[in-house]
Amino acid sequence: MPDEQHNSGRRLLLQSAAATLLLSVSRIGMAASSHVVAVRVWPSSTYTRVTLESNYSLKYKQFRLQNPARLVVDISGIQLNSVLKELGQKITSTDPNIQQLRVGQFDTSTVRLVIELKQPISPHLFTLTPVAEFRHRLVIDLYPENNPQTSSDGESDDPLLALLEDYNRGNVARTLPPEKKKDGRAGHQRPIIIMLDPGHGGEDPGAIGKHKTREKDVVLQIARRLQKLIKQQPNMTVYMTRNEDIFIPLKVRVAKARKQRADLFISIHADAFTSRAARGSSVFALSTKGATSAAARFLAHTQNESDKIGGVSKSGDRYLDHTLFDLVQTASINDSLRFGKEVLTRIGKVNHLHKHKVDQAGFAVLKAPDIPSILVETAYISNLEEERKLRTAHFQQQIAESILAGIKAYFADGGMLARR
């Protein structure tokens, strides 16, 4: 009897130990597996982006099926969860590229995405490492394969789509015009060509105010107001790097300005800082010798992080990656400073100025070698009062009118650009 009790107790002890070991292994296995924590879909007239965000890096394989045309993406090491199930519901009937999207558990450790397509698509898939508040991401970009605006030589008549295609091939500068003086005087023999660049967009919201105001939204609204004002001018032509909620890489924004042979490049943002007391409008130009203030250095770093938030960064672009700027670049910076001063003076009449001179830093989006370029920080979205103002149509219109007044004053002053 004592032996039976001893054996019974030993069995219970072994069973308990085995159960503990199994639970421990199970927990380790669960911790090592990826869990999708967020899914997002950004449809636009140019391309559709699907993003899956996970606590671990996602491994995937892709292949195509026909009748109907489908893109299949198998993601290993994950389980179907409630977040993934939401993905199909995020596809709208107005999406120009996706008919429908189905998600299912393909086998014990693989989730399969089946994307039914509305038209022939060129897919670009890549992963992004964590940055800012984002975790690991798998990005699926769907570009139209047969652009309806494609000309007979195979080149797209849509400059943005063509540049995005070149960017994905790793050669965004392939079709850009050479750096040279433009024909005729801007505003006299030909229109002044202006490129407006609403910052951020799509998956990159930019700064977010306490009341959830997103930088990408307010700067697009300001840019649209400014676009409307410029269109009313008899001697000006205006383009936008984006006119919808879409992510455009910084290099593509600059390249589009060069593709359109712009005379001015104006990037529009809404500043943010760790202290809500910071307030006021600012204007920045490019610096080749480092930032002129700690604030400018901080801001340039945060703005240049946009490419890491929104998409994979590619190198090899001689217009943007070079570190030695020629005399054309130097002249453009001087023009930028003069143009920026005109804009800053006008904005100072409608809002407090954070600094009363044009600041400088190494903003990637200002690196077009032959285009005077400025970055306008309209106000501090992190400041409660200025966040409120940024949401109003009145303040947005005031900023747009101030920038236009700065453009007119710059050309009326007979600067270098006006003599080109």
TrEMBL record:
<comment type="similarity">
    <text>Belongs to the N-acetylmuramoyl-L-alanine amidase 3 family.</text>
</comment>
<keyword id="KW-0574">Periplasm</keyword>
<protein>
    <recommendedName>
        <fullName>N-acetylmuramoyl-L-alanine amidase AmiC</fullName>
        <ecNumber>3.5.1.28</ecNumber>
    </recommendedName>
</protein>
<dbReference type="GO" id="GO:0071555">
    <property type="term" value="P:cell wall organization"/>
</dbReference>
<dbReference type="InterPro" id="IPR050695">
    <property type="entry name" value="N-acetylmuramoyl_amidase_3"/>
</dbReference>
<dbReference type="GO" id="GO:0008745">
    <property type="term" value="F:N-acetylmuramoyl-L-alanine amidase activity"/>
</dbReference>
<dbReference type="InterPro" id="IPR049745">
    <property type="entry name" value="AmiC"/>
</dbReference>
<dbReference type="GO" id="GO:0009253">
    <property type="term" value="P:peptidoglycan catabolic process"/>
</dbReference>
<keyword id="KW-0732">Signal</keyword>
<keyword id="KW-0378">Hydrolase</keyword>
<dbReference type="GO" id="GO:0030288">
    <property type="term" value="C:outer membrane-bounded periplasmic space"/>
</dbReference>
<dbReference type="InterPro" id="IPR002508">
    <property type="entry name" value="MurNAc-LAA_cat"/>
</dbReference>
<dbReference type="InterPro" id="IPR021731">
    <property type="entry name" value="AMIN_dom"/>
</dbReference>
<keyword id="KW-0961">Cell wall biogenesis/degradation</keyword>
<feature type="domain" description="MurNAc-LAA">
    <location>
        <begin position="254"/>
        <end position="408"/>
    </location>
</feature>
<dbReference type="Pfam" id="PF01520">
    <property type="entry name" value="Amidase_3"/>
</dbReference>
<dbReference type="Pfam" id="PF11741">
    <property type="entry name" value="AMIN"/>
</dbReference>
